[in-house]
């Protein structure tokens, strides 16, 4: 199973200015296209409730799994699923359903939980030419993980995705 973390960051390292900020308001069209292509390849995305609420709907052509203790009503269960499972258990369930890839899409607590689990294989980090000064970091707790740059994807003259392999 290939598990990847995908996130857009400001040049000073933030994924958002506040918890209710919608990333598409400050990220580029090129990043949105990259995100859509990668997550459609995965066919299943995992995110926290706040991230899901800022998006406001399931992502088309992808199963959306949301970390929440709340019931998610108004969505077909084959499109949106609520979970509280630890990463290893959730990954086993996803794999049993026939998926071979999974995209971890945020927010900070979900990124942290999955990085701490040791299950992430690849990170796709888009760096956008924006500065917030303060805000929400990629991880909400200390992470000590070695990564190796494997590729740079130049999305435009201003936006780059750095692809990292997690060294295990």
Proportion in helices: 10-25%
Number of helices: 4
Query: Tell me about the biggest sheet?
Result: 8 strands, mixed
Oligomer: single chain
Structural class: alpha/beta
Write down the CATH topology: Dihydrofolate Reductase, subunit A
Order of helices and strands: EEHEHEEHEHEEEE
Structure explained in plain terms:
With 168 residues, this protein is α/β, with parallel strands linked by helices. The protein has a single domain, classed as Dihydrofolate Reductase, subunit A (3-Layer(aba) Sandwich). The protein is 24% helix and 32% strand. It has helices at 29-42, 49-55, 87-96, 108-117; strands at 2-10, 14-16, 44-48, 63-67, 80-83, 101-104, 122-128, 136-137, 147-154, 160-166. Strands 5-4-3-6-1-7-10-9 form an 8-stranded mixed β-sheet, sandwiched between helices. Helix 2 links the parallel strand 3 and strand 4 (63-67). The relative contact order is 0.26. The model has no long low-confidence stretch (mean pLDDT 95).
């Amino acid at each position: 199973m290939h598990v990847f973390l995908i996130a857009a960051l400001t040049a000073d390292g933030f994924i958002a200015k506040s918890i209710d900020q919608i990333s598409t308001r400050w990220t580029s069209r090129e990043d949105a296209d990259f995100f859509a292509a990668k997550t459609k390849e995965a066919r299943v995305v995992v995110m926290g409730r706040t991230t899901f609420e800022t998006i406001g709907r399931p992502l088309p052509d992808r199963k959306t799994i949301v970390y929440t203790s709340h019931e998610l009503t108004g969505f077909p269960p084959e499109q949106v699923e609520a979970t509280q499972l630890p990463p290893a258990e959730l990954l086993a369930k996803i794999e049993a359903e026939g998926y071979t890839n999974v995209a971890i899409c945020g927010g900070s607590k979900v990124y942290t939980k999955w990085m701490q689990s040791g299950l992430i294989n690849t990170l796709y980090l888009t760096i956008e030419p924006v500065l917030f000064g303060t805000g929400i970091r990629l991880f909400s707790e200390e992470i000590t993980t070695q990564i190796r740059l494997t590729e740079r994807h130049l999305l435009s003259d201003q936006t780059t995705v750095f692809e990292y392999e997690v060294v295990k």
